[in-house]
Amino acid sequence: MSSESEKDPHPAPVQPQSLEDPRVADDEGDSAGGRMGFLEHLDELRKRLVYSVYGILGGFVIAFAFIKFIFEFIMVPLQEALPPGGKLIYTEPGEAFFLWMKMAALAGLLLAMPILVSQIWMFIAPGLYTREKKWAIPFVAFTSIFFLGGALFSHFVVFRLAWSFFAGFSTDYMDFMPKIAPVFSLYVKMMLAMGIVFQLPTLVFFLAKLGLVTPKFLIKNTKYAILIIFIIAAVLTPSADPVTQTAMAAPMIVLYGISIGIAWVFQKSQPDDD
Question: Among 19, 94, 210, 232, which residue's CB has the most CB atoms within a 10 Å radius?
Fold first, then answer.
């Protein structure tokens, strides 16, 4: 039988147990380690901008090597939509040459899209948790694929519908003879707009992974989404004609339906109740 005098007079202090999830602690440590100061952010931004410019320049050089093919790819369908005997015209000495340069720049931008998106991701990655950094490949792939998909949809569908609509007002006493510079400007605006519009599934993918949207929420607010879609189409459409606005709003509605499916597949899993 032991007595109280045999007890250790100086017991070791009991260390309180941490209630924090070790996974959360690791994420917080990783995020803290990735924090940068203001000047470091500026230097990182400069680096990413330089790499992006190099990517665009590389795409421009490659595109300019195939400029005749790109020129025919864009201009021949437009000329075919004109009234019989109609042609696109230019009135300034250097207008056609600079059109070639602009086409090469646009094609170079599309070719460099994966590089640009990856540079954007590398710029924001230091502020993300480890589990969020694993989304780099989906982010680059989805953004690039959907942007190129929107550009192609604009070329083959939306712009051709708008172009046919504009060219349909020719009469015996009024000929449609468009200049190449404003035509290409409209072409670029519509292509970039559709490229942005086609980012809806990518946006919903990341919002669903973060738990900010759910399929139920998207389905419940479908009628409001359709109204917003037509408002966005009216804002992004360079021209005010209803044909172009409808042609831009229709794929957005389809993409919204696809986004509901994406949110259902990739929605954030709910933790079990304690």
Answer: 232
